[in-house]
Design brief:
By secondary structure, this protein is mainly β. It is built from two helices and 23 strands. The chain has helices at 114-117, 260-266; strands spanning 11-12, 18-21, 26-30, 33-38, 42-45, 53-57, 66-68, 82-88, 91-99, 108-111, 123-126, 129-131, 142-146, 151-155, 158-163, 167-171, 177-179, 190-199, 203-210, 221-223, 238-240, 246-249, 252-253. The longest helix is centred in the C-terminal third of the chain and has 7 residues, at 260-266.
């Protein structure tokens, strides 16, 4: 009899790691060099980190490209035991891979993702689909649903968006995001930013910042010009951080939520 994994397949290590087997075929590349090619990866969640990472059996990794780290970091990744530098495509990347001390994960190697950490492998594939930033969490849903709710957005008392045709994005662990047609947004009150982010569920986002004098974080508005198919309904629509603006839905003013983005929105820009 075949036994299929369920939520109960998630296991805990004494170090506080959560992990579970994954049936996806995963490859990781540095440029044109395939460093990882695995049909038996495991997903690992570190304590306090909301997104997972992959770890791979050593036999699925090009260990000939790895060397003991010259300058291993401290207090990085839960209980990490050994760090490796990666040499591929004529480039040396420090601390691009590591092992966990957990007995359950013995014989596995994890890797940094360039678009998340600024170093590590820069192309990742699940089956034939390229994914970005981090693995997609099998216990998380992202649904983009067209709505006729009346949504208003205010900044410092000024209504900057007013629509009856939003697309609502429901994402596990985050507040509902309200995506609004450009025609219903006072985009003249904002200026384009050179900031961008990647999301494995939605794609690559472009940003705008408030032109006014109110105390508003930079990059408070974003849009996906070329979203992934699962959320194609948000294409070119604009969303605001609930954490930083006032949103009213069907006459009810929403409380500003506290999320993992709250701290980054309130941090001063680097000098």
């Amino acid at each position: 009899m075949t036994t299929f994994p369920t939520a109960r397949a998630v296991r805990t290590t004494p170090e506080g790691l959560l992990w579970e087997p994954c049936e996806r075929w995963v490859r990781g590349r540095k440029g044109d060099v395939t460093v990882v090619d695995s049909r038996h990866p495991v997903l690992v969640w570190e304590p306090g980190v909301p997104v997972p990472l992959y770890a791979f059996p050593r036999g699925d990794v090009r260990e000939d490209l790895l060397h003991p780290a010259r300058n291993p970091p401290k207090d990085t990744h839960t209980g990490s035991r050994t760090f490796y530098d990666l040499e591929a495509g004529g480039e040396l990347m420090e601390n691009a891979a590591w092992t966990f001390p957990a007995e359950d994960l013995a014989g596995h190697i994890a890797f940094e993702w360039f678009r998340r950490a600024g170093r590590g492998l820069d192309h990742w594939y699940e089956e034939e689909e390229e994914i970005f930033v981090h693995p997609r969490d099998p216990h998380k849903r992202v649904d983009a649903i067209a709505s006729s709710r009346h949504v208003q957005v205010e900044i410092d008392g000024t209504v900057v968006a007013d629509t009856h045709r939003p697309v609502l994005v429901f994402e596990t662990g985050l507040p509902t995001r309200y995506y609004i047609p450009r025609e219903d947004v006072r985009l003249d009150l904002f200026e384009p930013s050179d900031h961008s982010t990647g999301c494995p569920y939605k794609g690559t986002a472009a940003y705008w910042s408030w032109r006014g004098e109110a105390d508003v974080p930079s990059n408070v508005v974003w849009s996906y010009p070329d979203p992934l198919p699962a959320v194609g309904a948000v294409k070119d629509l604009l969303a605001f951080y609930n954490e930083a603006v006032t949103i009213t839905v069907d006459g009810e003013r929403l409380e500003r939520p506290v999320t993992p983005f709250t701290r980054t929105l309130t941090e001063p820009p680097p000098t």
